[in-house]
Design goal:
three-stranded antiparallel beta sheet; alpha+beta; elongated; two-stranded antiparallel ribbon
Amino acid sequence: MNLTCHECGFTAGYLDFAYLCKNGCPACGESDLRQCPACGARCVFSRAESLEDEQERMKELSMQLTAITRTDDPVMRKEAKRLIATLNGMNMRWNSESLNAFLLKKQEELFF
């Protein structure tokens, strides 16, 4: 899903536009406040428009995380932490109990 900046007209994937309301906010309602990567303008997009492809992205990231097994390799451990953090952030919007359970299980499996 591509978004277009209201100020400069730059078009890119929604993940390229920085999400400014990390935990959502009542003032935004059903909208997301994002920052244009080209000009820095703050743009408001409908949440449905912004999240249209996020569910598929969560599946892709979950599959990548599933492929990582317990290791002492610092690069793989860092990647696992990045994936977990990204998925946790996405799940703050989706509130999926199954994703939360999966992330907890992977953290225990990989790091404890």
